[in-house]
Design brief:
- The chain has seven helices and four strands; from the N terminus they run βααβααβααβα.
- The protein has 137 residues and is an alpha+beta fold.
- Helix 3 packs across helix 4.
- It is globular and about 35 Å long.
- It binds adenosine-3',5'-cyclic-monophosphate.
């Protein structure tokens, strides 16, 4: 059993496809252990993506992630981190396989519809960034 942090990004929330995206997680055997809709400030988005602070896209990415509401979730299941990454598809939708969330809902590498933790250490940091123990089922 493993947990991973998932975010439905502002562009996907705007497209009104929250339910469709969550359905894909559930159909693939992942369970939602916690979930909320929030609107991050620029500072909160910067804190979340601090690992990318030296990257050229850091400023644009954190502007995008604070432009509107997002849905943050903890997904739980066997190999949840890898399974979530497979369901999402490649970071750049141009390289994403058919049937993946990013292929279907992303506009480009930045506005790529969803985020998912990439390793157990990042999952632990990202889950704790948004959720307290009392909020996790
Ligand atoms: P995400 O899974 O949220 O993790 C980091 C994000 O940075 C990534 O998805 C993309 O949205 C963004 N990103 C990664 N590479 C680039 C890039 N070359 N240009 C713009 N944004 C990027």
């Amino acid at each position: 059993m493993e947990r991973t942090l998932s975010i439905i990004k502002p562009n996907a929330v705007k497209k009104n496809v929250i339910g469709e995206i969550i359905g894909r997680f559930e159909k693939n055997g992942l369970r939602i252990a916690a979930m909320k809709k929030i609107w991050m400030t620029k500072e909160e988005a910067k804190g979340f993506y601090v690992v990318h602070k030296e990257r050229p896209f850091y400023n644009d990415l954190t502007n995008f992630m604070s432009e509107g509401p997002v849905v943050v979730m903890i997904l739980e299941g066997e190999n949840a981190i890898l399974k979530n990454r497979e369901i999402m598809g490649a970071t750049n939708p141009a390289n994403a396989a058919p049937g993946t969330i990013r292929k279907d809902f992303a506009e480009n590498v930045e506005r790529n519809a969803v985020h998912g933790s990439d390793a157990p250490e990042t999952a632990a940091f990202e889950i704790a960034y948004f959720f307290s123990a009392l909020e996790i089922m």
